[in-house]
Amino acid sequence: MQQPVNTDFEVRSLDALCVNESRLQHRWYHQLKYLVIGILFGILFVKSEVISWFRIQEMFRFQSFHMYGVIGSAVAVGMVSVALIKKYRIRTIYGEPITFPVKTFHKGQVVGGLIFGLGWALTGACPGPLFAQIGTGATVVIVTLLSAIAGTWVYGRFRDRLPH
């Protein structure tokens, strides 16, 4: 018996990929808001020291609560935000509904998380603050950025053959 083929949306909703089904078209300058938010977010990363290699090493050595407090605060804000969006059926600023596809747990997530954490501990950087670190003058992080890009490419290349 042949299994039915999933639609593209069904396959993408099973992954950790962003599923944006918006059909709205905007002019190029509508994207400037993301540039401004990214710059402000980078400043926040620098000022809160979450891009500091030393702070990250303190976290992995259990020597400081700083990073755990920042990460825990972000998780709490995210949980409250998602609960409020679901409860009040909040829409985007363009009136589109916000949906959260149901995700299932896979053992590959544990392996991926361990690889991610190992890379984070070794390099002192996760993908979020890479550009902020480079912007502060830590140009050696360009190696980490190129490695992240290569890893993303490798995953995309072999994604269909990996256990999800």
Automatic annotation (TrEMBL):
Task: Output the InterPro entries linked to this UniProt entry.
Answer: DUF6691 (IPR046513)
Superkingdom, natural source: Bacteria
Pfam families to which the protein is assigned, alphabetical:
DUF6691
| Transmembrane helix listed as a keyword | yes
According to the record, the segments passing through the membrane are 32-54, 66-85, 110-132, 138-156
Q: Which UniProt keywords apply?
A: Membrane, Transmembrane, Transmembrane helix
Protein name, entry field: Uncharacterized protein
Q: Native species of this protein?
A: Taibaiella chishuiensis
